[in-house]
Design goal:
binds glutamic acid, two-stranded parallel ribbon, Glutamyl-tRNA Synthetase, domain 3, 585 residues, mainly alpha, Helicase, Ruva Protein, domain 3
């Protein structure tokens, strides 16, 4: 079997959404599984949408995720260049070839003429589309004489080249994910292939490049499925149908289920957020007062378990109700968007992005503190499953387990709690030495330092209790500095005058303890408590607060052992004196 050649083909129009990262991941996994080639092609022919920095962002995000490229603009390869702007000279010929072989035509209609046609049809209750039904009444090389066309071309008139979609045909593909998908050619519009500035549209450049780069499988988001009928026609038009790639359209990534975040406590917060967005979108909304809209939104949100039913438009609904329902429907359901990240407080991009204006900036999984593999593992499951119970996979294991056949058809719901769970699992199963090396710069950035052995032990003690590695330095700060605060309220409660003498006595015993290992400390301290018939909490709680400042954390004996005798005893003396003073104040 031919080894697959797959491409990830983003347009550098901004930061890469995690949906894009998932597309890249599935392409990567598929290529690697079969010993194939994973290619990055930058689709930057639409200069009006080009955003500086976006290509670097894409490259950096893929590198952070560990998705190594075999061919790319930076790495080169046998089928370059890998940036469409650098290939632009070749597309024009293919556009004109369409005209020559009867699959395309010159269209000279101006924007005004097309608008007029649209209005004319809409007035009759019809929808305008440039297609087999309308092209014969428009200004193009199909309706004009050769002489007229030549005259216009000679005079350098503006023209586009459109694809001439055949009438009454069924165009079909066998999508690996969705099975047979059919396109009724009458419903396909004659899309522009070459623009009046001579640049290709996405469709032309995409197909021409997939062919020339010998792409075997096109694995991309479902939003491209409607364009695929046109792509098949292009392959046919150029006589390339025999080497047409196979298609696999990935399911959408959906917004989190509203019931996962809406509750009676936060209903007012979300009502206000949505109200503000509603009026931003419907600035002309005058049917109801703001307060009435507020009540309507709140009422719907409160019924969070019946949202779908509540949002259904009923025949008796008036315009205002329809507007509110429509707005909530698109806000609460459907495709995951950048907005959802802002609104619900989680990242939807792999890396932070500065943006042109401060309000365009957002954070990323990396900056929130995710292990890139935890994010990858999470994304792998957004649309695919291995068919087993296993959830935690290394990249190599994902490669091994992956298949396009196990990708689902229905939308995959984004669940941030699950993303955090994956990160936690990576922490728990992380190697302590690796975690220690990640902790080192984080600890340093707080102005603290610790030796590697301490960092490793801290990693071991705290990895079960943290979601992100970045949570650890603050939680374990007392290992890195003597300058920590006591939870005084707790200390006051736990320090009992009647036990004071015994607590001081234990400090003396600890000072004389030779073996300061966690095991031995446990024996000594528990033995002392039992011998003196004290309560565990009466002794251990003040001990813990004195050495760490807080009432919770990992095993007290481990804490003492790691701090060492000198530090532990010093802190106990200082802490107990402080607690006594607090009590007497
Ligand atoms: N440039 C398109 C995008 O931005 C590529 C779609 C495809 O893979 O064909 O997603």
């Amino acid at each position: 079997m031919q080894k697959p050649r797959v491409r990830f083909a983003p347009s550098p129009t901004g930061a890469l959404h995690i949906g894009g990262v998932r597309t890249a991941l599935y392409n990567y996994l598929y290529a690697k599984k079969l010993g194939g080639t994973f290619i990055l092609r930058i689709e930057d022919t639409d200069q009006t949408r080009y955003v500086p920095g976006a290509e670097d962002y894409i490259t950096e995000a893929l590198a952070w995720c560990g998705l190594e490229l075999d061919e790319s603009p930076a790495k080169g390869g046998d089928y370059g260049p890998y940036r469409q702007s650098e290939r632009k000279d070749m597309y024009g010929d293919f556009g004109h070839q369409l005209v020559r072989n009867g699959w395309g035509y010159y269209a000279f209609d101006t924007a005004e003429e097309l608008d007029a046609k649209r209005e004319e049809m809409e007035a009759k209750g019809e929808k305008f589309s440039y297609n087999a039904l309308t092209r014969n009444s428009l200004r193009n090389s199909l309706t004009m004489s050769d002489a007229e066309v030549k005259e216009l071309l000679d005079a350098n008139a503006d023209f586009t080249i459109r694809l001439k979609c055949p009438a009454d045909e069924i165009v079909s593909i066998n999508d690996i994910v969705r099975g047979k998908v059919e396109f009724q050619s009458n419903l396909l519009d004659d899309k522009v292939m070459l623009k009046s500035d001579g640049m290709p549209t996405y469709h032309l450049a995409n197909v021409v490049d997939d062919y020339h780069m010998k792409i075997t499988h096109v694995i991309r988001g479902e939003e491209w499925l409607p364009s695929t009928g046109h792509h098949v026609l292009l392959y046919r038009a150029f006589g390339w149908e025999n080497s047409m790639p196979q298609f696999a359209h990935l399911p959408l990534i959906l917004k989190p289920a509203p019931s996962s975040y809406l509750n009676n406590k936060n209903v007012d917060i979300y009502t206000d957020k949505f109200l503000e967005e509603f009026f931003k979108k419907h600035s002309d909304f005058t049917l109801k007062t703001k307060d009435q809209v507020r009540q309507a939104i709140r009422g719907i949100l409160l019924d969070k378990d019946n949202l779908s039913a509540r949002l259904q438009i009923k025949p008796k609904d008036k315009e205002d109700k329809i507007a509110i329902k429509g707005f909530l429907k698109s806000t609460l359901f459907g495709k995951l968007s950048k907005r959802d990240g802002d609104r619900l407080g989680f990242p939807v991009f792999p890396l932070a992005w500065q943006g042109e204006k401060p309000e365009d900036a957002f954070t990323g999984f990396r900056e929130v503190g995710f292990d890139p593999m935890a994010m990858i593992n999470f994304l792998a499951f957004l649309g695919w499953n291995p068919g087993t119970e296993q959830e935690i996979f290394s990249l190599e294991q994902l490669v091994e387990a992956f298949s396009l056949e196990r990708i689902g058809k229905s939308g995959a719901r984004f669940d941030y709690e699950k993303a955090k769970w994956f990160n936690q699992q990576y922490l728990i199963h992380g190697n302590n030495a690796d975690l220690a090396s990640q902790l080192k710069p984080l600890v340093a950035s707080e102005g603290w330092s610790a030796d590697d052995a301490t960092l490793e032990k801290v990693a071991e003690l705290y990895k079960q209790r943290a979601t992100f590695i970045g949570d650890i330095p603050q939680a374990a700060s007392y290992f890195f500095t003597d300058d920590f605060n006591y939870d005084e309220k707790n200390a006051k409660k736990k320090w009992k005058e009647k036990n004071a003498e015994k607590n001081h006595e234990l400090v003396g015993i600890l000072a004389d303890t030779e073996d300061f290992s966690a095991d031995n400390l446990e024996k000594v301290i528990k033995g002392f408590i039992e011998e003196n018939e004290l309560g565990f909490g009466d002794v251990m709680a003040p001990l813990r607060i004195a050495v760490s400042g807080v009432g919770g954390g990992p095993s007290l004996f481990e804490i003492l052992a790691l701090l060492g005798k000198e530090k532990s005893v010093g802190r106990l003396k200082k802490g107990y004196a402080h607690f006594e003073a607090l009590k007497n104040a």
